[in-house]
Automatic annotation (TrEMBL):
One GO molecular-function entry: transmembrane monodehydroascorbate reductase activity
Annotated catalysed reactions: monodehydro-L-ascorbate radical(out) + L-ascorbate(in) = monodehydro-L-ascorbate radical(in) + L-ascorbate(out)
Membrane topology, from the record: Multi-pass membrane protein
PANTHER family tied to this protein: CYTOCHROME B561-RELATED, TRANSMEMBRANE ASCORBATE-DEPENDENT REDUCTASE CYB561
Classification via PROSITE patterns: CYTOCHROME_B561
Native species: Aotus nancymaae
Transmembrane segments: 12-37, 57-75, 87-106, 126-148, 160-179, 199-219
Alphabetical list of Gene3D superfamilies matching this protein: 1.20.120.1770
Cofactor: heme b
Functional summary from the UniProt entry: Transmembrane reductase that uses ascorbate as an electron donor in the cytoplasm and transfers electrons across membranes to reduce monodehydro-L-ascorbate radical in the lumen of secretory vesicles. It is therefore involved the regeneration and homeostasis within secretory vesicles of ascorbate which in turn provides reducing equivalents needed to support the activity of intravesicular enzymes.
Membrane keyword on record: yes
Record-given protein name: Transmembrane ascorbate-dependent reductase CYB561
Short name of any one Pfam family annotated for the protein: Cytochrom_B561
Length: 251
């Protein structure tokens, strides 16, 4: 049996991917440092329960979601189904972690008697989570569930990519809104005095924006897309033949 041909990796791609991971891990670490140094740390059964929310969102809806989007750029020669499963699993982990963050903030508000869903950040957050969940469900139905036809997958693929990038961008924007809201609630007028917490959080905001920008840049480079493998092309021809009413085996 002939060995499967492998596609060459663009020279600059590994450096951009490595840079995105450095940014992502740094922003997660800096989120933990911000919460530990200036917000008292993290605990579920105490006043620190609220701090679970920003950490979970940074890990789930920012870092893991970004990595899930990059799967098809990083794993260029692996079997398509393996790559699909990894892409889907990363999104599942991101959803679960984000759900923990949502439960934490709603439970904290309930215990404190605070109002829910009144701020722009909270509205955007719910919108992002609902869109993300729907995107995962539709993506699973079309690309992992065996009942979806090839023609249906082909028609939906461009929309899936577009909405995936859009939801990621909305996630970054919502995180920035939440960060600014948290600073204004605690620091108030002191925010303009270059308080150390404000400076650290501003740097965290820049990291969020840079991570989002690098991920989107990698995704939008057409020459960095995963090339079609030989077996994928053959499968496409088989489905095309089936939709035209002939059996692939009769060729």
């Amino acid at each position: 049996m002939e060995g499967r041909a492998t596609a060459s990796t663009p020279a600059a791609l590994p450096y951009y991917v490595a840079f995105s991971q450095l940014l992502g891990l740094t922003l997660v670490a800096m989120t933990g440092a911000w919460l530990g140094l200036y917000r008292g740390g993290i605990a579920w059964e105490s006043d620190l329960q609220f701090n679970v929310h920003p950490l979970c969102m940074a890990i789930g809806l920012i870092f893991l979601q970004g990595d899930a989007l990059l799967v098809y750029r990083v794993f260029r020669n692996e079997a398509k189904r393996t790559t699909k499963v990894l892409h889907g699993l990363l999104h599942v982990f991101a959803l679960i972690i984000a759900l923990v963050g949502l439960v934490a903030v709603f439970d904290y508000h309930r215990k404190k008697g605070y109002a829910d869903l009144y701020s722009l950040h909270s509205w955007c957050g719910i919108l992002v989570f609902v869109l993300y969940f729907v995107q995962w469900l539709v993506g699973f139905s079309f690309f992992l569930f065996p009942g979806a036809s090839f023609s249906l997958r082909s028609r939906y693929r461009a929309s899936h990519v577009f909405f995936g990038a859009t939801i990621f961008l909305l996630s970054v924007g919502t995180a920035l809104l939440g960060l600014k809201e948290a600073l204004l609630f605690k620091l108030g007028a002191k925010y303009s005095l270059f308080e150390p917490e404000g400076v650290l959080a501003n740097v965290l905001g820049l990291l969020l924006a840079c991570f989002g920008g690098v991920v989107l840049y990698i995704l939008t480079r057409p020459d960095w897309k995963r090339p079609s493998q030989a077996e994928e092309q053959a499968l496409s021809m088989d489905f095309k033949t089936l939709t035209e009413g002939d059996s692939p085996g009769s060729q």
